[in-house]
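Changelog note: in this version the structure field was regenerated for every chain. One regenerated record is shown below for reference.
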Amino acid sequence: MSTAEQQTAAGPQTAAEPQGAAGPQATAEPQGAADLSYSEVEQELRANVRALVAARSPQASVLARTESAEPVDTGLWRALGAELGVTGLAVPERWGGAGASWRETAVVLEELGRATAAVPYLGSCVLATAALLSVGDGGLLSGLASGERVAALAVPFATAPGAAFPATVEARDGRLTGAVGRVADALTADVLLVPALTADGSPTLWAVDGAAATPLVSLDMTRPLADLRWDGVGGRLLARGPEAVRAVESALNTGAALLAAEQLGVAEWALETTLDYVRTRHQFGRPVGSFQAVKHRLADLWVAVTQLRAVSRSAAAAVATGSPDAQVAASVAQAFASPRRSPPPRRRCSCTAVSASPGSTPRICFSSGPRAPPSRSAPRTGTGPDWPGWSTSPSPYRSRHD
């Protein structure tokens, strides 16, 4: 069984073009769907990012860093900007970026998700960059493109596209007062992009150099969250009125679409690691993967990951071309990457490859429940059916022991 990327071109290929001041090129797509296969340039980009991450951020160091006082890998972050230049892929060349598109950015996120790399790429290079591209602030974008500065959009990480404009911060006489909870990548940010309402209820977007931050314990220990508070802090106005609303909406749509790419990377790694494990793990004198029931469940997982790859690539292509269906594509991608738990029509299996300690052999947990590819935000544990070798502990979480 192989996890080689299999994508079917559903229409004529659309070539990437340089971006404009408002973000990735927004020309209308030709009739027919975009080509979702990976281009030669994207494959080369993937190989370079994977090699760098493997050398600078192996799994053992990621696990060790989550227990340290510095969960963010600043060395890897500097290398991504200085050595590969991928921190400014979506930024036009005139502002120091690569002039590529969100499709290339999605490829980088797949690899960072695959390694659960502890860098603020999603917060700075996607959410904040998309908002700044919408307002055309070249000054801040130049710093973000080089990786020398880190920015974060001050909205709760769970905010979905299409949500109402945030109303927890008030802007009065150029000063901000209020609080925002559960902001991703805020602890390492040099600048915060803060949506705020004026006294008359008009939406605005501000650039603020800092905030009183309270770190939170998040489920994903490689992506720190924080509660932020401002008490009369001054800032620079970036946009007001409909322009501010568009900037926040653009950031949320792009973030949701590209978060699916990151989750795809985790799902692919989990499936590949599981396949390697069931080939080598023996039970009753034969490899676990030779049992027909295991083959069926892994085939279901392969199909689920392949479907996730298709909708993730579609969402990245939609935001890259400024498609009017971008929000729908992002929602579909998130529906596959982060499905709600509901009673399944029949028993299915999901798996998560876990490592008990740095350098140890991964332990694989199968779970019976709704079909759901693993996501970066998924806990690294699982439940198990009554397979030979599974623990019979009364705990609700029954894990397999070597």
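Spot check on this record: Residues 242-280 form the longest helix (39 residues). Residues 315 and 329 are 5 Å apart (CA to CA).
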